[in-house]
Amino acid sequence: MFRTAPRGTHRAPGRAVIDYRGLTAPVGRGVGGAAVIGAVSATAALTGAASATAQAPAASAFGTVHGAAPSAAPATQAQYTATKLRLGARGAAVTHLQQRLNAHGASLAVDGVFGSSTLRAVRAQQSAAGIGVDGVVGPRTWSALTGAASAPAAPSTSTNPKLRRGDRGAAVTTLQKQLNDSGASIAVDGVFGSGTAGAVRALQSAAGIGVDGVVGPKTWRALAGDARIGGSSGSSAPSTSGPSTTALLRQGDRGSAVRSLQSALNDSGASIAVDGVFGRGTASAVRALQSAAGIGVDGVVGSRTWNALNSDVRIGDTGGSRGSTGGSTSSGTSVDGNAIIAAARTQIGARYSWGGESPSTGYDCSGLVHYAYNQSGHSLPRKTAKGYVFGGRIISQSEAKPGDLVAFTGNDYGHMGIYIGNGKIIDASGSRQQVVERSIWNAPHVFVTYR
């Protein structure tokens, strides 16, 4: 029998038995330095601590070991801000982002994870800085975060996020409380529903800012200021009481506030049914009233429209003055409606051509208006459809006469025709590619006169 060496001992002394040096190269490429150090340590176990100390490289030569931070200088701010970050990102750059957001009024856990809380804080900062609110941290967002100021001048716009219908949470609760403080009467439930959206629009209308139902910096500032729902800025209450002076109304609404509106419109010269339904007839009367008052013609009843209804503005007048008859006009010229219609009818079947205004070129909608009016002896400069709307006078449907214009408000007053009575028009139709005579279809529209 052969005798074996005792367990734990080598059969022969010296390095020739196990040579660890050959393991370092192939393993080291896969594990980034850890195997190198392991191999050196194994050699040290064979040759003694002193030789291991002599052979062991400095930690900096191998970088991070087992996730520990190296002793080298940390990344600079410029290196962080050169990184574009978005939801789901992780790492040191996200940590730096969270620190900067907190310096600007956020209250985030600095964990290096770009989650939903960080996303909301980014959007709030973008909204406050007046840049694109997309939740992606690029050069403009980094610039806003790393500016000289360590905190925003107006916390109300930097700490309050942009809100819109469908949002939920503490920020919506804060919004609802401030809306109620400004004259609304809505449930404070943290849900941005239709009631909250209506109150936001009413506040925006009272403050004279864009009425879009989205709560951004301007709306937050209006809430922090003296704007009140249903009244002008700085007033504690409207001049008269009741729903007719406080409700923001638009087409599709129903109820007692709409009845009050319809009665007031009839008192101002309209002739519509008082049925509590804000339909096309009511919308046309509202636009006619707004045109007569010289305010924005959008068909939405806000504080300025209510004020016009409570004053001496009458539908059919211009500039808010009371006219002696509903047929008075701003131009003082006589328009022969029958002659206009006759000229337009001669072109039925003519081809549609964008920008065209004659039989040889074809017609677009405004080109046909230009041709028919000028052929009938009424000198009218060439304009777009929208130009003709606001160059004339918006009237109610009950006032419209043959030869007046019907302008469709979609696409920024993108189409019009010549009214021939009985709910019909002649127009240059892009869809049919020719001049046609047809009924007015179910789309928002206004009546315009040059009488």
Automatic annotation (TrEMBL):
Domain (NlpC/P60): residue spans on this chain: 334-451
Pfam families on file: NLPC_P60, PG_binding_1
rRNA-binding recorded as keyword: no
Domain of life (superkingdom): Bacteria
A biological process term (GO) from this entry: proteolysis
Compositional bias of kind Low complexity: 147-161, 234-247
Entries under Gene3D superfamilies matching the protein: endopeptidase domain like (from Nostoc punctiforme) (3.90.1720.10), PGBD-like superfamily/PGBD (1.10.101.10)
MF-aspect GO terms: cysteine-type peptidase activity
Segments of this protein annotated with the region Disordered: 147-169, 226-253
Keyword Protein transport: no
Keyword tags: Hydrolase, Protease, Thiol protease
Family stated for the protein in its record: Belongs to the peptidase C40 family.
PANTHER family: MUREIN DD-ENDOPEPTIDASE MEPH-RELATED
Protein name: Hydrolase
The species this protein was found in: Brachybacterium saurashtrense
Taxonomic lineage of the native organism: Bacteria, Bacillati, Actinomycetota, Actinomycetes, Micrococcales
